Automatic annotation (TrEMBL):
Keywords: DNA-binding
Organism the protein comes from: Uliginosibacterium paludis
One matching Pfam family: GerE
Residues of the HTH luxR-type domain: 139-204
Protein name listed in UniProt: Response regulator transcription factor
Amino acid sequence: MTQRTVHVLTDDDALFQRFMRLGDVWSVLRLQGPERLDALPAESLVVLDTACAGLAATALEQWQAWSARLLAVVVSSMPTDDEGLYFLDAGASGYSHAYAAEVTLRQILDVVVSGEKWVGKSLLNRLLAGLQQARENHTDKRTVLLTGREREVALLAAKGQSNQLIAETLQITERTVKAHLSAAFEKLQVSDRLQLALKIHGIPH
């Protein structure tokens, strides 16, 4: 199997030795200072330890420049979700606990070198929760013109439910469902159920 190269920038000898244990698959090289990052070929895989003295005062613009050129995995011995979001916003390809289990370190490198992003479970849950909240807020804005019942009917219709199923779910008649849908179509300025679904989910049509 051809070895792939990962460059590690850290002042922590113990941390570097952890990455050295990946030597069966990875050629692990230690960088002597952040200035060496600029000399690496584009798309090089690098692990950057936030505790490294040379990185302590690094400006956001520099992190963005490195992340634009390199596959940068940022590791921290005291990771936080806010710090993870900061580096991901800066373009980092991954963020992890510096002392993650060896099997996790292997997964991180494999995922990042394949072109994907890596985030820990806690940060992933926070990102997903934020996405769900954003979608709910977006939907609320789209349906603010509707009455409570019209909104219930419209949301179920946007999920693809039939008039009969909507009627059974809300315990109303199909005729009432049709009346609420007609009102929703008029208020949201759409002409059919497909346009209604697109409108509610914020998809241009």
